[in-house]
Structure formats: C-alpha cells, structure tokens
C-alpha cells in the first residue's frame, strides 16, 4: 500500500464515525455468476456489513442494478442503516424506502431499438437486452467471445444511444445505455458531502467503478483521506491497475472488510 492509501486506511480506523464505506455489489460483495438473478453475497459478506454498520458513519452499496433488486437478492434489508444507491445513483433505497425517478424519455423511446438494431447487425442469438427501466443493458456474457461480439456490435449500439440521447457505458461483457448524468463518482461525492465524511473507502471491480475511484482520488487531493480497493478479476484488469489495493474477488473483499472492522473496534 502506498502512503496516500495507508493514510486513508488509518483515517478510517481512527475515526469510524467519520467514515464512508461504499461497495459495489456484483463482483465485489457477490461473485459474478452466469445468471445475474442468482448473484448472492459471498460467505461472510452480510455479517461483516452488519458489523461495519454499527461502526461507520455511512455504509453504502453503490450498484448499477436497480436498488430494490439488489436489496432483495442480497438480503441487504438485514443491514441496519445501509444506503443502497441503485442504477448509478439514479435511485436510492434506505430504511425500506425506495426513491426512484420517472423513466427517462430516451429509454422509453429507445426500448424497442436495441433488439432490432442487434438483429440487423447480425448479433449472436445469445446476446440479450436487459430492461432496467432507467437503462437498457446489452449482455454478451453468454456468447462464445463476448469482447469480440460487443466490438462488432459497438457501432449499432452507439447509433441507438446517440439517436435517443443516451450514453453508452461499457462494462464486463456488457454495454449499458443510460441517461446522462449518473455515475459512481457522482454518488460518492454526494454521499461524502451529505455526511461530511472524514475518510472514504470505495471498492469496485468493473469499468463503471473507475469514476468512483476517481472521486476518492479527488477527495484525497482536497484533503479527505481515502482508499480504493479493486476486487480483481481477469475480465477487467484495468480496474485493479487503477486501485490502491487489489484483493482476490469477493472473498478477498470480505477478508479486507473483516480486518477493517476488527481494527475499528480495537
Ligand atoms: Mg461490479
């Protein structure tokens, strides 16, 4: 760990009440699985979240998924005080209450477009489109060569995005079309400002988490200590390179959070 990261860790431990601990869900708290509706937390993940919830000022899950879906899937309602920022901060769940915006006009207009555009581009039949109401996600995980398939479909997907005023955001074996103005960096800046956080930790595993890492780096430059953690996977090596610390998948994240929680209570 280099000096700024160590300072971030030490500040979290020294002042848990001033800490913001924010974690992605898929690939960080829950192992990635073929069927995303079966992605459940790693062993020990919920237990350590419950322990952290008693200690830290702000504990948040920051995900691209719909907030209610991840609460249900993860059993997150059992973690007292947890904030779940869903769809890159477009919606929020806290204390059993979901706040979610109107569906963006661009998504309504674009809803029928991706399947047609993909068919016209000769997409592999294993490509499918997930409708998240606030965003549309093209999934290539089930194809033989997801990166090549997405590369081939990229022009068609970009045309749909452009036509409907949506932004294309690449991720692991996916590209997501969503309304402009939402990313995990914005979520972290907002959470830290709202709580007056005095130290920040953010853990992610995918390209959509890099704006979150950038926000921690900005906070650090502005005097708030922080640390970024990658839940490393071969599918997104750039994420591990960008983070202060790389751990081995959700099991490694759980170990790191247990250490943090233990040190906070010493
Ligand atoms: Mg993830």
Automatic annotation (TrEMBL):
Q: Which reaction does it catalyse?
A: alpha,alpha-trehalose 6-phosphate + H2O = alpha,alpha-trehalose + phosphate
Judged by the first EC level, this protein's enzyme class is hydrolase
What cofactor does this chain's UniProt record say it requires? Answer: Mg(2+)
From what superkingdom does this record's organism come?
Bacteria
In which family does this protein belong, per the annotation? Belongs to the trehalose phosphatase family.
One example GO MF annotation:
metal ion binding
List, alphabetically, the NCBIfam families matched.
Answer: T6PP
- EC assignment: the record states 3.1.3.12
The pathway is: Glycan biosynthesis; trehalose biosynthesis
Keywords from the named record: Hydrolase, Magnesium, Metal-binding
Taxonomic lineage of this organism? Bacteria, Bacillati, Actinomycetota, Actinomycetes, Mycobacteriales
The cross-references to PANTHER family, in alphabetical order and at most eight, read:
TREHALOSE 6-PHOSPHATE PHOSPHATASE (PTHR43768:SF3)
Full protein name: Trehalose 6-phosphate phosphatase
**SUPFAM superfamilies listed in its UniProt record:** HAD-like
**Quick one: a GO biological-process term for this protein?**
trehalose biosynthetic process
Function statement: Removes the phosphate from trehalose 6-phosphate to produce free trehalose.
């Amino acid at each position: 760990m280099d000096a700024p990261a160590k300072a971030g860790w030490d500040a979290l431990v020294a002042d848990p009440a001033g800490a913001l601990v924010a974690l992605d869900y898929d690939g960080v708290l829950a192992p990635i699985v073929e069927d995303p509706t079966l992605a459940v937390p790693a062993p020990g993940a919920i237990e350590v979240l419950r322990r952290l919830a008693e200690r830290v000022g702000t504990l948040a899950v920051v995900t691209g998924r719909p907030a209610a879906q991840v609460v249900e899937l993860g059993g997150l309602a059992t973690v007292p005080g947890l904030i779940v920022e869903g769809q890159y901060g477009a919606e929020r769940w806290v204390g059993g209450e979901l706040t979610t915006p109107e569906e963006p006009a661009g998504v309504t207009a674009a809803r029928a477009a991706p399947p047609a555009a993909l068919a016209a581009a000769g997409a592999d039949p294993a490509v499918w489109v997930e409708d998240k109401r606030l965003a549309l996600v093209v999934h290539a995980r089930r194809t033989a060569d997801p990166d090549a398939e997405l590369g081939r479909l990229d022009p068609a997907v970009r045309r749909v995005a452009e036509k409907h005023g949506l932004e294309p955001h690449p991720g692991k074996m996916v590209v997501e079309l969503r309304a402009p103005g939402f990313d995990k960096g914005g979520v972290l800046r907002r959470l830290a400002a709202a709580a007056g956080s005095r130290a920040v930790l953010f853990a992610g595993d995918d390209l959509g988490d890099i704006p979150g890492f950038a926000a921690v780096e900005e906070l650090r430059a502005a005097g708030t200590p922080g640390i970024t953690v990658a839940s490393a996977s071969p599918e997104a090596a750039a994420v591990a390179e960008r983070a202060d610390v790389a751990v081995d998948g959700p099991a490694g994240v759980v170990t790191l959070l247990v250490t943090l929680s233990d040190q906070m209570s010493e």
